[in-house]
């Protein structure tokens, strides 16, 4: 397993390089002058520094190479300097945002905690709700619970976040006044009262994202459980006198989780994509809103960095899913 993981990590490097090159070349096709969005108040020396950092006026391959060097060589040095107080990156050019005229990674690092609070919690809540629903629906197939769960999950899977978000705002913020409609990213949680306010403002965006996660995973969990409940090994386990709880929650559940693990792992990058809409609806100052703002401002360095981060998440969680296969099923070995 360790050899397989190392081999996959090595193969992921050219994969990510190819993805970054494809993203870079597609963004190069965007119309307009990259420096047109820079305000006239910016000093000429700052504009010249930005042009040097971007490699404007040079061949696209040169510009791409400069981005690679800045992203994978200079930015790690900046991180090292911040941790240990060194000065390896002093005076070196970094990836600069055209919109804010500050280093892109500094902005991304500032925004990530807000996204992780909302997206991370919503995904955990969605998984914890979806798995029991899928298991019980399969075990009680065609029961009232199963039919009700199927109806609710189909609605949740069909309604997009840009409809669910405003609907919750109208009901719970405008009509009932229970929760704030705008997420306050400046809130400092330093008391019990502030903690309650933080929970109140997180409930609606978490509900929107968790609804789709629950709807999708519960259907996969139900289908996988139904497929395994009819297998011969289940009848054999029951014939041996094993309790129904052991048969379902140990033998059937472990085998049923193998395909569901793929959906859970690959759903992490997808939920970040869904957060782009949700963050804009609730004004969460995260990386989803940052990406939309960068697209409208034609901030190509910011768009390039964020899309590469999403691609990295997809490759990473593909690897995690493959490793979990071997953990859940001893028959799967990577030799």
What is the SS-derived class?
A: mainly alpha
Main beta sheet: none
Give the topology string: H per helix, E per strand: HHHHHHHHHHH
Regions with pLDDT < 50 over 5+ consecutive residues? none
End-to-end separation in angstroms reads 8 Å
Strand content: under 5%
Radius of gyration from the CA trace? 24 Å
| CATH architecture label name of the largest domain | Orthogonal Bundle
- Count, helices: 11
Q: How many separate structural domains? A: 2
Specify the CATH homologous superfamily of the largest domain.
Answer: MetI-like
How helix-rich are the residues, as a percent range? over 70%
> What do we call the CATH topology of the largest domain?
MetI-like fold
Assembly classification = single chain
Count of individual beta strands? 0
What do the pLDDT scores average to?
Answer: 77
Task: Put the structure in a nutshell.
The protein has eleven helices and no strands.
Overall description:
The chain is an all-alpha fold and 335 residues long. It has 2 domains: 25-96, no CATH class; 104-328, MetI-like fold. The longest helix is centred in the last third of the chain and has 39 residues, at 244-282. It is built from 11 helices and no strands. Helices cover 76% and strands 0% of the residues.
Q: Strands, helices and their partners?
A:
Elements: H1 2-28, H2 44-54, H3 60-84, H4 104-139, H5 144-158, H6 161-175, H7 192-229, H8 232-239, H9 244-282, H10 287-296, H11 300-328
Helix pairs in contact: 1-11, 4-5, 4-7, 4-9, 5-7, 6-7, 6-9, 7-9, 9-10, 9-11, 10-11
